[in-house]
Amino acid sequence: MWGPREESAQEVTDRLLAALRALAAVDGDLLGRWVWPQENDQGGVDLHPLDDPEFALSVIRASEAKPPQTGYSARGWNGRRGAGEVSFKVTAGSRSKVTMNLAYLEFAPQTREEAEHWADIAEPALWALVSAWQPDHGSVWTKAVVDAQQPAVRDPFAGYVTYLCAGRLADDLAGGTRTSDGGVVFTASSLEDIVVGPIDTAASPATVTLNQTPDSAFQGAPLVVSPTADAGPVVAAQPALSLSTTAVFAVDAGTLHAGASGTVAGSNLADVAVTPDGSVLYAAAGSQTSAAGFATAARGLAFSTDSKELVVIVDGADGPALKVVDDPTEACGLLC
């Protein structure tokens, strides 16, 4: 994202083509093909290659905003649906103090392997955009990460990877990796490194134990609840996503041990709570019409509060997992 910078259609096109080339160099399979979908006279859709300089320039020229001082825009897609789907949008050349210039990629990993791959390429992909567009700041983020910080419009915010231009840096700033343009890149964690761990508040200063849950994938800071500080269980739930992962951990001498996990709580999770004895987890999700109750034990079952769904803990390929059983007689490897 960057402030007012008046540029011609040709200058914006040159930056766009430079960004596409840089992204292709990061991952030619995933980010090496970009198309512009356009309806044809037969009611179908033609996919025009955006790496064609003449076509790219025609797209930019056709997008000139009214009034013209608000710049140009373009969007593209890598031609995939579902797994591996990536899209981008750019607004550039604006000299208006109201309309921001910006360029971004949008992606939603469908599998753990896909998320891990994005963790590997997130930093070079961000730098591909930075090197082409020379923004004020940029980051790799999820909605949950931004919502947790509530930044003002146009202000930088911390992401999994964060870039700040040279003009944003204090003289005595420490940390991060300096870039060739004088800016700096900070890497907070990978897309798969959001984990749950205990904080010892009795110590001075308080100490944090990290990476106790390396196999639990969260896309942003989870909601964490526990009825007691020492005995657990500890429940971590990912809010505001579809679907929302919920994981249960047993506590033994201050160490977390993974139990059941799953997405049966629904999407757009808003809150979770655990009963004082730790036996039942309650979840409130936007996709559900009522709160749902789940057994937290490694073996057990629970009904949702509207008694329409039976939720069981089954022996999954990666350990205990929560499963909704519409027919209670269905064979599901129940561990009760």
Characterise this structure:
The structure is a single chain. The protein folds into two domains: 9-187, no CATH class; 218-325. The protein has helices spanning 9-26, 28-31, 53-62, 112-133, 143-149, and strands spanning 35-39, 45-49, 72-77, 86-92, 102-107, 137-140, 161-164, 177-178, 184-187, 199-200, 207-208, 223-225, 234-237, 246-252, 255-262, 269-274, 280-285, 292-295, 301-303, 310-316, 319-325. It has a four-stranded antiparallel β-sheet, covered by helices on one side. Strands 12-13-14-15 form a four-stranded antiparallel β-sheet, with no helix packed on it. It has a three-stranded antiparallel β-sheet with strand order 3-4-5. Residues 189-193, 298-309 and 326-336 have low confidence and may be disordered. The chain is globular, with a radius of gyration of 24 Å. It is α+β, with helices and mostly antiparallel strands and 336 residues long.
